[in-house]
Specification:
Layout: E1 8-10, H1 12-18, E2 25-30, E3 40-43, E4 45-52, E5 55-62, E6 69-73, E7 84-93, E8 99-106, E9 116-123, E10 127-134, E11 148-149, E12 153-154, E13 168-172, E14 180-191, H2 222-236, E15 262-266, E16 269-273, E17 279-280, E18 282-285, E19 294-295, E20 318-321, E21 335-338, H3 340-349, H4 353-367, E22 372-373, H5 379-383, E23 389-393, H6 419-431, E24 440-445, H7 457-460, H8 466-478, H9 482-489, H10 507-535, E25 540-541, H11 552-559, E26 565-568, E27 589-593, H12 614-629, E28 634-639, H13 670-690
Parallel strand pairs: 18-22, 18-28, 23-24, 24-25, 26-27, 27-28
Antiparallel strand pairs: 1-10, 2-14, 3-6, 4-5, 5-14, 6-13, 7-10, 7-14, 8-9, 8-13, 11-12, 15-16, 16-17, 19-21, 20-21
Helix pairs in contact: 3-4, 6-10, 10-11, 12-13
Length: about 700
């Protein structure tokens, strides 16, 4: 999942309902004042002072360009905000649609990835919101291992920030598809203050203890009542109408039936085709599994009740883990972790809970109108699936590009001698269980690779780095000598070993870097595709799940090789014009991840797209799916994920997002289910008509 940007949007009513706000604040900017400070800079934005509620504010107009922003530049010396926990801005959205707003806080050299904390979220229509970013200072935290915490919101995602040397912050829009307006009211700094929550704050079911909301589980006996009620509902509505046995459009045009999933472009529009020859749009849910673990080591006072670790029905739900990616440095990234969701499944279904839950998962997905078990789903769910599914694999144990950067890890070096063998082994292993199953649509290989950190990292790597050696060989073949390259690039390298990428590459350097990026990318996709087709010749190679659109060179290389391209796209709706015209890649596309979250059911973080409440979350789901179905290049979208993340953070990176169709008590969100059934039932005729 793409974690470079993640912050919280805290609707006022949600705070009042569930969390106490830290009141140790220091005003920073009053946007209703007659004159704003000189450090306010406008980039592709304009503003006007307007009457607002009981005073005045600034209405900011954002242009339809990339990254329009209101930029706050430290005047002479950096701001010292070391006495504070974070910065917040109160906003109002006067429009009819949610607006995706972002915040970034910089040290010197902040560029959106390095030396900054950044974030993004959706501002609800006709609603107030407080956009809050908690500094990631790398210091110990009493409420560690959670992306969002009660009262303080999320920790800014990005490198460690020095709060004593803040050079700038900004509020911006990423890539707005229309002009937008937001009302800016006030900005302030909030202090550490006292711990914003009383201990313990998690109840025996894994829920937030200090709040109430509709559907909160208070008695274990209610689980059986919910189980019975849902069984009646699923029996009454087993699936949406007009589907073939694979979830394709039974009432739609008949195409050639090959016995396997394939792709076809019909009247200018891409489709997947089921083994029976029907049009198929992949509606999937990621992570159909029994939930993530959360650390309990070092957190005894957080939990009202934890089961015995050594005996009883719940003892097996404890696991000793190590090697956490982020968030648990205070315990060295290792310790005991527990699953509250699985504990609730035992309470609800008894000793045979695993099989009963799995069969119910298939019934739920089919009833809700989904037709795909999507990525990251657990092995038994995939291996026993009665629905079409996708499989993922990862090419591991390949030398990384030493000078590269990346959130999850550095890019693997595709020129390393072991790369081909490792790709072959990855597909040999995964295809052994699935290559003969017509329910298997195809294979993703890798996820959110660090393409963005690769290009500059080539020449920052040691001289024995295989990709560096390949690039130097290309440059030596192109230029007659090192002085000739220095002249072309505007560099002063004294040897080929000393050559580095210029800080701002000139056109000649950029052209050479782009040419090698294409060569590198093409080698990656060629090698992986060969392995996929060797071991799974009847199924589709679904790409590498880009974390948003990469550079054109990498996209072009991918499109020339894969069967279906894949992106994880956390947008409010799919930008209609991003994959058309000269950006048309000539291949179908599937969205591997998207989601929306809210704070009205006792959780502390909305995820990467925030909404005001469950009603708006459900509405946003339907809008997003329709926007994807309207685009002729897209053949599916997969929601991330089946179950909410643990309130106290999944163990390996602290994510604790309200992004499930089901909560920690195994209770479906009724709003999401209703919305999904409605939009899925109409999707095939809608898409067929929209994209004509």
């Amino acid at each position: 999942m793409n974690l470079i940007a993640a912050l919280i949007l805290i609707p006022m009513h949600a705070l009042a309902a569930s969390q106490a706000v830290d009141t140790s604040v220091t005003p920073l900017i009053d946007f209703g004042a007659m004159a704003l400070p000189d450090f306010v800079v406008l980039n592709n934005t304009t503003l006007e002072r307007v009457p607002f509620e009981k005073g005045n504010a600034r209405l900011v107009h954002f242009a339809k360009v990339n990254w329009p922003n209101v930029f706050f530049q430290a005047p002479n010396t950096p701001w010292d905000w070391s006495g504070y926990t974070g910065v917040a801005v109160s906003l109002f959205n006067p429009g009819e649609e949610s607006v995706t707003a972002c915040m970034r806080v910089d040290n010197a050299g902040g560029d959106g990835q390095q030396h900054c904390n950044s974030a993004e979220a959706g501002i609800p229509p006709k609603g107030h919101a407080v956009l809050t970013l908690r500094f990631n200072t790398g210091t110990d935290d009493q409420l560690w291992g959670m992306r969002g915490v009660p009262g303080l919101g999320p920790r800014g995602i990005g490198p460690t920030l020095d709060a004593s040397k803040i050079t700038a912050f900004q509020v911006y829009l990423g890539r707005p598809t229309t002009t937008c307006e937001l009302v800016f009211e006030k900005a302030w700094l909030f202090g550490k203050g006292k711990l914003p929550v009383a201990m313990p704050f998690i109840d025996r079911f894994g829920q937030y203890k200090h709040a109430q909301w509709p559907g909160k589980l208070t008695k274990e006996s209610a689980l059986q009542k919910r189980r019975t009620a849902e069984a009646r509902e699923l029996k009454a509505r087993p699936q949406v109408a007009a589907r073939d046995s694979f979830g394709g459009w039974a009432d739609g045009p008949q195409r050639e039936a090959t016995g396997w999933f394939r792709t076809e472009k019909i009247d200018g529009k891409w489709w997947l085709i089921t083994p029976e020859g029907h049009l198929f749009f992949s509606l999937g849910v990621d992570c159909v599994n029994t939930g993530e673990l959360t650390f309990v080591t070092g957190r005894d006072e957080w939990f009202a009740e934890l089961p015995d670790r050594n005996q009883g029905s719940f003892a097996a739900l404890y696991t000793e883990v190590q090697g956490a990616h982020s968030g648990s440095e205070i315990i060295g990234g290792k310790g005991w972790a527990f699953s509250f969701y699985r504990a609730n499944l035992i309470r609800k279904y008894g000793d045979n809970w695993g099989e009963q839950w799995r069969n119910l998962a298939y019934a739920r997905l089919r009833s809700w109108g989904f037709n795909t078990v999507a990525n990251w789903s657990q092995a038994d769910v995939i291996n026993s699936s009665t629905l079409p599914y996708v499989v993922s694999t990862s090419i591991s144990d390949v030398r990384p590009i030493t000078g590269g950067t990346g959130y999850w890890s550095k890019m693997k070096d595709v020129f390393a001698p072991e790369f081909e063998a490792r790709a072959d082994a990855a597909f040999q292993w995964v295809a052994a269980a699935h290559a003969k199953n017509p329910l298997c649509i195809g294979y993703f290989a890798d996820n959110e690779l660090a393409w963005e950190g690769f290009q500059r990292g080539i020449l920052e790597s040691p001289t024995d780095q295989p990709c560096r050696q390949a690039f130097i060989a290309d440059l030596q073949a192109r230029y007659t000598s090192l002085p000739a390259l220095n002249t072309a690039w505007g560099t002063t390298a004294e040897s080929w070993d000393a050559l580095r990428t210029p800080g701002t590459p000139n056109p000649a350097a950029k052209a050479d870097l782009d040419a090698f990026l294409y060569r590198f990318s093409r080698r990656y996709f060629d090698v992986v595709a060969a392995a996929c087709r060797k071991y799974a010749p009847h199924q589709l190679y679904l790409g590498c799940r880009f974390a948003g659109p990469p550079t054109r060179e990498t996209e072009r290389a991918c499109a020339e090789v894969v069967d279906v391209m894949s992106y994880n796209l956390y947008y409010s709706t799919l930008p209609a014009d991003q994959w058309v015209g000269d950006r048309d890649l000539g291949k179908p596309i599937v969205i591997g991840e998207f989601h929306f979250g809210a704070l009205d059911r006792g959780m502390f973080h909305t995820g990467l797209r925030a909404t005001a409440n469950q009603k708006e979350r459900a509405e946003c789901y339907a809008k997003y799916v329709r926007s994807v179905a309207s685009h002729p290049a897209f053949v599916g979208c997969h929601w991330f994920q089946f179950v909410d993340e643990p309130n106290t953070g999944r163990w390996f990176d602290g994510e604790n997002y309200n992004i499930g169709f089901i909560d920690v008590t195994d209770t479906p969100y009724k709003e999401m289910v209703k919305s999904a059934r409605r939009v899925h039932a109409e999707l095939y005729p809608y898409r067929y008509a929209q994209a004509q």
